[in-house]
Specification:
mainly alpha, 0% strand
Length: 383
Amino acid sequence: MTDLFLGIAILLFSAKLLGELFERLNLSSLVGEIFAGIIVGPVLGLVMPSEDLRLVTNFGILLLLFLIGLSTKFDEVKSNVYVGSALAIGGCTLAFLGGFLVGYLVFNSVQVGIILGVAVISTSTAITLRSLTDIGAFQSKPYKLALAIDIADEVIAIMALALLTSYFSFGAVEIWKVVTLFLAVLGFFFFILTAGSKILGKFLSLFQTMRDEQIVLSIPLVILFFIAFVSEHVGVAAVTGAFLAGVAINKSPLVEPVIVPKVKAMSYGFFVPMFFAYSAVLLDVKSVITFFPAILALIATVSLGKVLGCGFLAKYFGYNGFDQKLIGIGMIPHGEYSIIIAQLALLGGFIKPELYTIVIAFVIISIVITPLLLKLVNGRNRF
């Protein structure tokens, strides 16, 4: 426990300090938090990877997605569902091909190519939306389309993960299991955003008159963790469940004046900066140096696939050049799904630790370059 306490103290202090520094440099604090993890982890060795730290810091991504859900009015996204789905298919297909080519050419293995291709399919919703918010694009036209693309992207990633885990478990793909999972996922999404939203809204309203004012924070957190629990059991990542929990209760009159400020203070004051800092602690610097050309190739091919498949194709749906750039670049960052797939493959003995490091480095670099590129594009064409 002493190592855990010290690790939390170092991560939190360094993440907030460098986050502030990068903010003063007119860059996203997210970039500073990532660099803080690199400095205190791989560079100085002050913080080492541990299961306890991973569990604590993972709350950050849940709370971040919950906050995004609280601020997302799903009714405003409905109009973009079909366009978002079409662009998500384009982006995921090209990203998979990019990952497959790098995996096959570098490791001379079709299996590694498929695993790497699946690992880079899904964009990180949290990073995309936070990066767009940082440049003032919150609730803009590109933001709403990016959200629709990310939701469709999640469903595609879940299907790909189901296919891959079926292969890991049985040595073959069992289509009926994948179809069953897909139907369960769609049913879960539909229930949470319709009847579930009404039920949870009424449940939350029961506590408005309680004397304990902090219960207005506790009950939304109960809803968050319960839906995250159910999400995992139906094959959806807990982070997606956290987002849906926020969307399900965001019509409550308590959200803007009470819930959001309380959750934001706890999230950005503690959990969120630690999550991004810890993601960089996992980096193996030696393997990164050895395979740096492969990492760059992966970043280039996958990013190009996302930019073309999501951004460039958006012009056929009436989006101008500036919006296309924001949408395409916004799809570059990867996160939890990439790491989950790499971990499954590593634990199953399907890939070597070197490939796992490549995926982690790819995720970190994609997270770092996205806000930088968005800042550059927005500097030329501001909202």
